[in-house]
Structure formats: C-alpha cells, structure tokens
Amino acid sequence: MSFSKLAARTVALGYLALLLVAPVIMIFYRTFEGGLAPVWTAINEPNAIHAFWLSIEIVAIAVPLNTAFGVGMALLLERGKFKGKLLLGMLIDLPFAISPVVVGLALVLVYGKTGWFGNWLIGHGIQIIFSVPGMVIATAVVSLPFVARETAPVLRELGTDAEQAAATLGASGWQTFWRITLPAIRWGVVYGVVLTTARALGEFGAVSVVSGRIEGQTQTLPLYVQDQFENFNVTGAYTAAVVLALLALGTLVAMNLLTRRTRRRTTV
Amino acid sequence: MAIEALNVSKRFGDFVALEDVSVRVNDGSLTALLGPSGSGKSTLLRIIAGLEIPDSGSVVIDEREVTSIPARSRGVGFVFQHYAPFKHMTVHDNVAFGLTVRKRPKAEIAPRVEELLELVRLDGLAERYPSQLSGGQQQRMALARALAVQPKVLLLDEPFGALDAQVRGELREWLRRLHEEIHVTTIFVTHDQEEAMEVAEQIVVMNKGKIEQAGTPHELYESPRNEFVMSFIGPVNRLGDSFLRPHDIQILAEADGSGIEALIRRVVHLGFEVRVELTLPDGRDIWAQVTRETAEQLELKEGQILAVRLPPPRVFAA
Predict the structure, then answer these.
(1) pLDDT value at residue A266
(2) pLDDT tens-digit profile of A46-69?
(3) Residue B233: CA count within 13 A, CB half-sphere
(4) Minimal Cα distance from B88: which residue of A?
(5) Which CATH superfamily is domain A36-266 in?
C-alpha cells in the first residue's frame, strides 16, 4: 500500500474514531462502570419504561406514515407530469434545512392554544400540543425527506419499461405498483425506512418544544436522557442512552440481515 | 385482427414525432415499420399499444375504436428493445404474469406457461431469474410473456436491436417461423432495412413523422415512390437527379459501342459480391455490384479502362 493511501485511511478512520466511536464506547463504559445492579435499577425506573414505550409508540406511528408518504411522493416526482414539480422537490427537503427547534415552535404556532387551529381543536376535545399527537407530528416532520429521497433515484434508475410491460399484460395501476414497482425499489425504501427510524428515535429538538416534557407522560427516551443528566442521575442518563443506541443499532442490523438474505436470492 | 391508425399526430414539446399519419395493417400479417431514428416509427407503435396518447387522430383494432382505451384493455402484446424483464421474478413467473393478474386458476396457468416456454425454446429454464439468461433468451422470455395472454396483436419495438449480429440473425428467422405457426397480426419496428426485407411481408417506410411508402419488400425495392425510399431500401448511385441500382450497371466484356467508357478505381471483394468503383468520362464516380464469378471472368483490375452499360435512370419529381 502506498504511503498516501495509508495516510488517507489513517485520517479517515481517526476522524471517525474521535467523533463517533470513542464517545459511544465511553457511554457504554460509563454505564457499566458500577456493575449490572445500578443499570438494572435504572432500567426498571417507571419513568424510564414509560419513555421507552412512548418512543416506540411514536416511531411505530410516524415511520409508517412517512414511508407511505415518501413512496407516494417519490412516485409523484418521478412518474408524474405536472407543473411545479421542482418546487415540490424543494419543499420535501425543507425539514433538512430548518432547525428542529424551529419546526417545534412552528407547530406550536399552528396547533397551540393561541395558534390557528389550536382553539378550534381544543374546543373539539383534541389536544395536539403537549400531548402525543403533537410529538408524532413533530417526529414525522423532521424525518419526512428520507424515504422520498432514497426512493426517487431508484425509481428513476428503474425506468418505465417494466411498468409499461405490466400494463400491456393487463395489470391495473394498483397491481403494477405492488407486483412490479415496489419489489424493484424495495431496497431504496428499506434504506429510507432505516434512516427514518433512526432519525425518529433520536429526535430531540422539535419533540422537546412540542411535548412540554412532562415526566412520565410526554417524555421520550432522548428527553428522558437529558432530564436525568440535568438532575445528576448519571447512571440513569447513560443507561437510557445505551438503550437508545441499541435500538438504533438493532434497526440497522435487522435491515442489513434482511437485505442480504433476500438480495442473494434475486440479484446476480 | 386488422389494425388501423387514422390521421394520427403527436408532438413532444417542439418536436413533431408524427404528422397526420394513416396506415392499415391487415389481419394476420407481419409488418415492419422501417425508418431512421427520429422518424416516428416507435411512437406510432406505442400509440397503437396505448402507451402513448396521440394529440389527434384515432386507432382502430379489429374494427373497434380504441383511442381512449388504456393499454391494459387493448389486448396487445408488447415487446421492448431492452426486454423489460421483471427482474425479481423467475422466468416462469414472468411468463405467467398476465395470467396471474387475471386471477386465472393455477391449474390452468402451469400447463400454459410450460407450453409457451417450449414454443420459445426456454423449457428447463423456468426457475431461473432473468439476470441468469442471455440477451437472446431474455427477449424470447419477453415474447412468451406477451403471448401468454393470447393478444389480438403483437407489437415489437426494435426487438433485436440490443442483440449481437449472430443472435439477431437467428431470432429474425425464428420470429418469421413463429408467425407462420401462430398467425397473430404482428408489427415490428426496425431501422435495419435488411431486417425488414428479410422478416416482413409488408413494410411501411417512415421518415420525419410521415409515411413515405407502404408495400411488399419487392414493391418497395422495384418501384420506390421517391428518393428517400429508393436510397433507404437497397444501395444506390446518384447521378445528378437520377438514381441507379449498382447491380443494374452492366460491365461489358468487349466494347461494342453500346456502352460508355469507365475507369476502375478500386475492386473490393466482399465474398460472393464484388464492388467495383468506377469513374465515368465526365469525372463522376459510381459503383457497380457484380458477382465474384463475373469479376473473375472479366479479370477486373484497378486502373483498367472498360465499357459499362447504364440502366435507364430513375428520376423522382421533387
């Protein structure tokens, strides 16, 4: 290996180690520093358990919503013929450009007590802000672009020949989508779902503003970590952080295994 | 089933793909749409299939107006240049697709697929995926897939364009025989005049969004209606406003006064055919096509001066 290649690798790996690997290892190290007993106690804390299930609940609603929306949007952008397509493509990326805190504030402005629909909604017994619906919306907004952005290029690459062939063979639009288009773009969708899930699990800023951060009620895992840290319960914070990291890691590994197993069978 | 396009026009932005095109294809025939790229031949085929909607004009299949009927209800089989395989399905599932979406019972699908794979000589490859097949095999799979739903008409868009010369030759021959066997009205698009002459019973020559001439290969070759058809179908010499076929130029063994003098610039041996490049006394260059036998008998050599007899030239009104 040439010197320059070696140097490039060292720099790249060193950068990764300093920024990502070392902090993650430190979290794991500090969590288990005092043995398993304090970790076990921290895990069984009712507020921690609640935060865990709330995070799962929000992800379980927001991710499917964004998956359906993202695939639909990608189809619209790649297969649709209409004016303003460019503008729509830019709109989808907006959540990437805006700070999550601003997203949260904007949602409060629209759905809060003094917001546009807030009063009307509360009058009809629907509370969005400071409750789970608002947190789901905030999470959905910040993780909106991933599926569309991962799926659109795969759709473009795929072309329309196979879809048109299906049409001439008598398939309806719906049949063509489920039997031809979706199987062909599935890895783009899967990758988008993984990114959406990871992003949704870790969301802090927007959810923090919208939730009101009520302990045991509107506290997700990231909010719980922050809360414990501020209250000097270091073990609680680290344990929750590790659980969060493992959840995200689990998603990545699960998708990876799934991808590899099916891919080996169909593509050569 | 007869196919008819009536006064069909289609634009893509500023580009005129088809301009007031009308054509009729008879029941059970095998027709080629022939023309250079950009002539509108693929667009016409796609409009017949319903994959493209004409700006104006209508399409009639089997005496039924189908212009506003979507592709999936037209009963056409369509074969794409790049095969358009369903990559995530086996060969069997590809061929069965049209029957599966029609919710036919499995007991009916299995024997039908088997029969079709035999027809396209892919029996034994049913469990393979498209990526494990050669280009020629993928195209035959695509053809079986199109035939599975018993289409009224079969449309092929440059079906052999992506294949190498040898496979292309085999598939041409095979398509002709297949058509004799199943007799479904077939239209295929090609830019290769040799392919059109070899395979088709009828040829429709297209250029710049219009039909130049339609007829049998023999008719088009012997009585081309205009300059474009004459020069697109078969080789030509151009002398001012007139055209002659190279094989109509006769090289004489002895100057008997009936011919004109010509100088041989070059003799090119192409196997059975020999190409003789000549310069006429007035300085114009033409070439003649003779057989190997004639070339040997006359002992044609570069630099030799001999007599040639020109056929009556063809002149087309501008």
Answers:
(1) 52
(2) 999 999 999 999 999 999 999 999
(3) 31
(4) A266
(5) MetI-like (1.10.3720.10)
Position A262 confidence tier, pLDDT thresholds 50, 70, 90 = low
Q: What is the 3-state secondary structure (H, E, C) of A36-88?
A: HHHHHHHHCCHHHHHHHHHHHHHHHHHHHHHHHHHHHHHHHHHHCCCCCHHHH
Contact status of A190 with chain B (Cβ, < 8 Å): no
Burial A227-256 (b: 16+ CB within 10 A, else e): bbeeeeebbbbbbbbbbbbebbeebeeebe
pLDDT of residue B317: 74
Query: Could you say which residues of chain B have pLDDT below 70?
Result: 318
**Nearest-angstrom CA–CA distance, B55 and B73:** 20
**A154's tokens:** 């795969």
Find the closest chain A residue to B133 by CA distance.
A268
Asked if the C-beta of A158 comes within 8 angstroms of chain B's C-beta atoms, the answer is no
Which pLDDT value is given to residue A268?
Answer: 38
Q: What is the pLDDT of residues A143-199, one digit of tens each?
A: 999 999 999 999 999 999 999 999 999 999 999 999 999 999 998 999 999 999 999
Secondary structure of residue B12 in the 3-state scheme: strand
Domains of chain B: 3-231 (3.40.50.300), 237-310 (2.40.50.140)
Chain B hits for A169, Cβ within 8 Å: 72, 97-98, 101, 145-146, 148-149
Q: What is the pLDDT of residue A267?
A: 47
d(CA A134, CA A130): 7
Cα distance between residue A161 and residue B193, in whole Å:
26
Sequential DSSP letters for B70-130: -GGGTTEEEE-TT----TTS-HHHHHHHHHHHTT--HHHHHHHHHHHHHHTT-TT-TTS-G
CA A167, A168, A170: angle at the middle one, nearest 5? 65
The 10s digit of each residue's pLDDT in A224-233 is 999 999 999 8
In angstroms, what separates the C-alpha of B78 from chain A's closest C-alpha? 6
- From the candidates B52, B79, B83, B88, which should be mutated to test the interface with A, based on the most A CB atoms within 10 A? B88
Q: SS3 for A73-134, per residue?
A: HHHHHHHCCCCCHHHHHHHHHHHHHCCHHHHHHHHHHHHCCCCCCHHHHHHCCCCCCCCHHH
CA of A162 to nearest chain B CA: how many angstroms apart? 5
CA distance B122 to B143: 11
**CA neighbours closer than 13 Å in the CB half-sphere of residue B194:** 7
Q: What is the pLDDT of residue B217?
A: 95
Q: How far apart are CA B212 and CA B264, in angstroms?
A: 35
